[in-house]
Every structure is written in C-alpha cells, then in structure tokens.
Design a protein that fits this description.
Structural class: mainly alpha
Distance between the termini: 33 Å
Largest sheet: none
C-alpha cells in the first residue's frame, strides 16, 4: 500500500474536459492513424477533433505525460502503486505526437475515466466546474 497517493501534474478538470470531448467525438467511429490526418467526413467532427488536438497539444509536457500514463493505468497496464514507473515510461516515450497517439485510442475516454477513478476522482463530481 502507498504511504501517500501520487500526485497528478494535470488537473482532473482538464482530464474530464478531454474525456467529455473524446466521448462527443466518439473516437470509436473514426479511423485515426497516428501518422496521418483522421478520416472524418463530418465537418463538425473534424472541428471537434482539431479542438481536442489543440487542447492536448497546448498542455505542458508534464501534463501530456500524465495523460498518457493515466491512459495506460486505465487500460490495465499497471496499478496505482506503479504510477512512478508508468509515468517514467510515458516520459521516455514522450514526443510531439501525444494528441495523435491518444486520439488513435478507441477507448480513450473509458481508459482515462478508469485511470482517474484509481486516483479517487470522478468527472461526475466535477460537473459544475467544467472548463
């Protein structure tokens, strides 16, 4: 058991914003290759994709690293007591394609939500404080 819960560099509000936008985008319906532009027919989806990409790209490097590590935590690649290891691996893998990498994940909202839950956070609790 951990003596102290690890701290996140990214605020729960920002993660919840990404979760909401990714759900709205419904990444399961998109074909996104991390090396190419998404195959999006609807202009609204394209605008939403660009908004979400811009938001993620505007995050600090530490926030982007936490976002990737949270995704991995939520999909079961580790447990909360292994957070430092997950985060270190995300830092080693960090590059300028974080948004493309994350948005290529069809279950991104679910994985982020599960990762947040392991930190004891829920987006439902933050409804009134959205970005």
């Amino acid at each position: 058991m951990l003596d102290a819960e690890p701290a996140l560099s990214i605020s729960p509000e920002k993660v919840c914003f990404i979760i909401d936008k990714a759900r709205e985008l419904d990444t399961e319906e998109l074909t996104i290759d991390v090396d190419t532009v998404p195959n999006v027919d609807d202009h609204a989806d394209e605008a939403l994709f660009e908004e979400l990409t811009g938001f993620i790209n505007a995050l600090s490097e530490d926030e982007q690293i936490d976002l990737v590590a949270l995704t991995w935590l939520g999909r079961g690649d580790g447990e909360l007591h292994e957070w430092d290891d997950l985060r270190a691996e995300a830092a080693r893998a960090h590059n300028k394609r974080t948004a493309a990498y994350l948005l290529a994940k069809p279950f991104l909202p679910d994985h982020l939500e599960e990762g947040m839950a392991q930190f004891g956070c829920s987006c439902e609790e933050m409804q009134p404080r959205r970005l």
